[in-house]
Amino acid sequence: SHHARYQITYKGIPVWGYQLVFHSKQGVQDTVTGMNITGIEKDIGSTQGKYTAEQIEQRILNGINEEIKFKNNTKVIFIDKDKKAHLAYHLSFYLNTKAKHIQAPNY
């Protein structure tokens, strides 16, 4: 059997938590599972955002004094519980100090 996973995007920006998976197996009808979303254009007028990725990083990481070993900041579309789309950033980073063992928060 073969599987292909596709990230749902809007104007090149990944939609957080929304993927489609195509399942294929010889002798069995192909199937698709996952979550799709429509209507993002009604909620997202511009993909520029109020803040830059750097500004978001500064605001969140400002109080951290330990060395950051790894950092990733990605612009995403977040769909809330009411199915409203929001432009957002997913910031994850990794700390490892003698005083505090591995920390890997996500914002």
Radius of gyration: 18 Å
C-alpha geometry: flat
Q: What number is the mean pLDDT?
A: 91
Number of distinct beta strands: 5
The largest sheet has its strands arranged as 1-2-3
- Helical residue percent band: 10-25%
Which structural class is indicated by helix and strand composition?
Answer: mainly beta
Number of helical segments?
2
Low-confidence stretches: none
N→C terminal distance: 36 Å
Strand content: over 45%
Helices and strands, in order, run as EEEHHEE
Question: Main β-sheet: number of strands, strand sense, barrel status?
Answer: 3 strands, antiparallel
Describe this structure in words.
- It is a single chain.
- This protein has helices at residues 40-43, 53-61; strands at 2-10, 13-25, 28-34, 68-79, 85-95.
- By secondary structure, the chain is mainly β.
- 12% of the residues lie in helices and 49% in strands.
- It contains two helices and five strands.
Distinctive features:
2 helices, three-stranded antiparallel β-sheet, flat, 5 strands, 107 residues, two-stranded antiparallel ribbon, mainly beta
Spell out the blueprint of helices and strands.
Blueprint: E1 2-10, E2 13-25, E3 28-34, H1 40-43, H2 53-61, E4 68-79, E5 85-95
Antiparallel strand pairs: 1-2, 2-3, 4-5
Question: Can you summarize this structure?
Answer:
This protein is mostly beta strands and 107 residues long. It has helices at 40-43, 53-61, and strands at residues 2-10, 13-25, 28-34, 68-79, 85-95.
